[in-house]
Amino acid sequence: MWSGTFNADGRGTMYEYKIADDGTLTTVAGAWEIPTKTQGLMVTANHFVYSTSYGRGNRSNLYVVKRGQKDLDAAALSCFRAPSMTEGITEYNGTAYLVYESASHLYGSDPATLNVIPRLHKASVSSLLSLVP
To answer: How far from chain centre, in Å, is Cα 106?
Structure first.
């Protein structure tokens, strides 16, 4: 299991945990640095894909990061823009699915919301991972 902290003003941290049969969590190998404003994470065998956003009028970014370096400055990565208000990202059967908060009841009818995205966006996981050399 992976869990991290949201930080609007700088990079955050995340940790990997092992879950024992009794539900006890054990931290594995220390903190990983994550991009500023991370709201979602997809984990593959060799990569992390972070969904980052904050604010109705600000663009989002997706970061594809090759695993191995806990320091983002030393990691091989690719970053690209997405519409505002990205949230969770997950994988199912080789397809990545990205959800947006902008179409929620709270934001969808607000004129201050830059992009209202009412549906999931999807891409093949392999196409995302191919962005990092």
So the answer is: 22
